[in-house]
Every structure is written in structure tokens, then in C-alpha cells.
Amino acid sequence: MRHRKCLYFAALLTLALAACQPSAQKAEHDGLLHIDVEAAMENLSELKVSDLGSQVHYVPLETNDSCLIGNRPNLMVLDKYILAQSNRRVLCFDKETGSFLGTIGHVGEDPKGYSQSIGLPAYNERNRMLYFVRQPNQLQKYDLQGNYQGKAIVPTPPAMPTDYAFIDTLVIGYYNNLAQSNVHARALAFFTETGTLADTVNSQLPSLPSKGVADIASISAMPAGLAGILFTRFNDGTASLSIAGINFLWKAEDDGVRFKEIFCDTIYNIASAGAIAPWAVFDTGKWHFPAEARQETSDSREKVLPLCVMENDETLFFQCARGLYEKDIEVLNGVYNKQTGTTRMGQEAAWFKDDINHFMPFYPSTCGTQGEYAQIVEVGDIQEWIEKHPEAKDNPAIAPLLDLGEEDNPVVVLVK
User: Fold this and answer.
1) What is the pTM of this model?
2) What string of pLDDT tens digits covers the 416 residues of the chain?
3) What is the C-alpha to C-alpha distance for residues 75 and 85, in angstroms, rounded to an integer?
4) What is the arrangement of strands in the sheet containing 186-191, beginning at the earlier edge strand?
5) Is the dihedral of CA 272, 278, 280, 286 positive or negative?
6) Max alpha carbon distance in the chain (Å)?
7) Which range of residues forms the domain containing residue 302?
8) Please, how many CA atoms are within 13 Å of residue 184, restricted to the half-sphere of its CB?
9) Cβ neighbours of residue 290 closer than 8 Å, sequence gap 6 or more
């Protein structure tokens, strides 16, 4: 395994370095999808829902005392179910009707409990199980009916991964090494559910100078679109930034798993533990944000960093951030069309204009297992928009939303 891993890592490093070069230096026919951020940045336009899909479906989630959803819930859309994580609970709803089906698992120290988390569990399409993190080295398994199905063991040390995906019979774990002070920090691990480590891949990021808690002058956090930016400033005047809150691993329509490490412009496809290859690259050109620039606070307005990525079989939605060390970070939405090979970008603040149902703008927060982009919208926001656009009351497409009350659970918007 060591020989295979060393050869594989050397090849991966060569490909990563090549993919992170400016677009003018790339081969034109390298077999990769090229997401032309540089050209799209020069021609920002209004993005529309039709850039993402052709149908919009609304799912008002049932409201009763057992399934009240708080503010800013996390959303997961599966083939037949919608999961909403809120108030330390994961609530399951029917995707077609919005009917409440039950709560899945619970936070607790008992044998079936999982650790408190602000995120949703990982979903394994192969066995239709949800995997919840339980520190220090377990994943608690539940089926979609809320039945406990045992545990998976995560090989430690190092500490547990921050993201999980599944390929064949293996679990893939991604380590978001926020400090990244070790040049050989692990990026990926492939392991069995019994805790046997099958393979690892090291991070491609350059190491940062070793710093301790005593070296930190301040730490601050702020949102950048769907991502969270963590700024660390040190006593010696240097700084660093890290990215969290987005998926670095996601399931692809072709049954592979995609992987994008932050500060790298390449998206990789994982077909199995021994088969990782570059799949797509963000051509940022003159806006290129080299990995070593995460410590450079100057000229950040001239650098654009690709952040979150979502994908279905026809399109790829992404967000980029410009001016990451500025007070006013500029976030841009983008769509790459796989059929036409075109890239379009627009300001995040404008969202996606609904040119299909002519309803309120759409802002995707996740992509479902069936390829639907999804957003969860508070009823109060819907009512406020309708008050400003009274003609919408005559729109049959949104008729199911007109009778909702202010205290009702939110509505899930699906773009298919």
C-alpha cells in the first residue's frame, strides 16, 4: 500500500500544481471541464433560475408541536425525504407532501446518542443510512425511519474528519486542517466501518509557520456566501484565513465522489480508494488566488477564491469570494453548464431571478441526491414579498403558499 500511495501522491501533486497555474499556461485539450471564471468576471450578468433548471416546486413543511423548526435550519434533500436540522434535532419530512415523518436520533451520551453538531449527518446512498458524528471516534448510524443501526469506527489519531462521503464499501473522511502547520497534514482517509484504515492522501496546501495560542492576537469570523471565513491575526503582524461551513466532498451523478480542497482551483473525482483524478478546474487567470497567499493581506481585492461547489448532471453551481482580507468581502454566484461549456457569474446579492414562476428570487443552499437545487424560505419572507408584489396572488404556481400562517414552518423550494 505504501508504494501505491507514494506513486499516487506524486502524480496527484503534479496534477494539482499544473491545475493551479494560470489558465494561459494550461493545455486546451486536457480532458478536464474548464470553468472560465476569468472571462465571466469580465462580464457579470443577471443569473436566472432557468440557468439551474426548468421546474420549480414548493414544499411547505408540516407544522405541529413536534416538528417546529427554528431560525436558519440546515437542509438536506434526498430522493423521498427532506431533512431539516434545527434546535439540536434532525427532523424528517416527506419530500412530496411536506408531511412530518419523525425525528432521527438524538444528541446525548447514551449508547445511541450522537454529539451536538451544527451540521447535518452524512448520507450513504448505498445503504440508505445517515451517519452522525459521535466524538471521539465513532459515527452513529440511523436509517431514514429513525431506527438505530449501530456504529462505524473512525480510525484515530489524528482527530476525526470534518466531512464524510462514501465510495464502494469505504468511508471517505476529509480533514479541514484549519491551522495547516504541518506540511504532511492528512487531507483524506479511506477506511472501513470497522475502523480499518485503507489509504490516506496528504494535503496539497503549503504549510504555515508553526504558531501557538500565545501567538494569536485576534480571531474573527464572518460569512462569505455559504461559507464561513475565519481570520487569525498574530502578534508578529502576520495573518491567516481558513474556510469552513461548506462541503469539500460531495456525491456526483456518475456515482463518483468529488473533492475540492480549499485554496486549490482543481476539483477531483474519486472513483475508488486508489483512483483519484482531476475532473474540473476553475480558470481564474489574472484573479488567481495561490495557496500561499492565504497569509498575504495585501491586494486581496485582486484575487478571487472559489469557495462552495454544488453539482448535478447538467450544471455546476459555485461561489467565489473577492477581497477576503477586506471589510466588505464581495461574493459572486456562478453557474457552469456542462452541456454548453459556458460559465456565467453574477453578484450574490442579486440571487437568481425566478424567470420560471416569477416568484421571489432563489438562493440555492444545497443540492439534493436527485439533482435538485434547494432553498428553505421562512413564511414571513414569503408574505413580505407578496405584500410588495400583490399581483402574485393571481399566480397559480404559488397558490399553495397563500394560505400559510406566520407561525408555520418554512417552505422548501426545489429547482429541478
Assistant:
1) 0.90
2) 333 333 333 333 333 434 444 333 344 458 899 999 999 999 999 999 999 999 999 999 999 999 999 988 999 999 999 999 998 999 999 999 999 999 999 999 999 999 987 789 999 999 999 999 999 999 999 999 999 999 999 999 988 999 999 999 999 999 987 655 555 688 999 999 999 999 999 988 887 777 888 989 988 888 999 999 988 888 988 888 888 899 999 998 777 999 999 889 999 999 987 789 999 999 999 999 988 887 877 888 899 999 999 999 999 999 999 998 888 899 999 999 999 999 999 999 999 999 999 999 999 999 999 999 999 999 999 999 999 999 999 999 999 899 999 999 999 999 99
3) 7
4) 163-167, 170-174, 186-191, 197-202
5) positive
6) 67
7) 2-205+213-415
8) 3
9) 20, 263
**Other residues' Cβ atoms within 10 Å of the Cβ of residue 185:** 16
C-alpha cell at 63: 407544522
Grid coordinates belonging to 94: 416527506
CA–CA separation, 4 and 68 (whole Å)? 51
Counted domains in the chain: 1
> What DSSP assignment string belongs to 22-45?
-GGGS-TTSSSEEE-HHHHHTT--
> What is the amino acid identity at position 243?
I
325/321 Cα distance (integer angstroms): 10
Q: What is the CATH number of the domain that holds 164?
A: 2.120.10.30
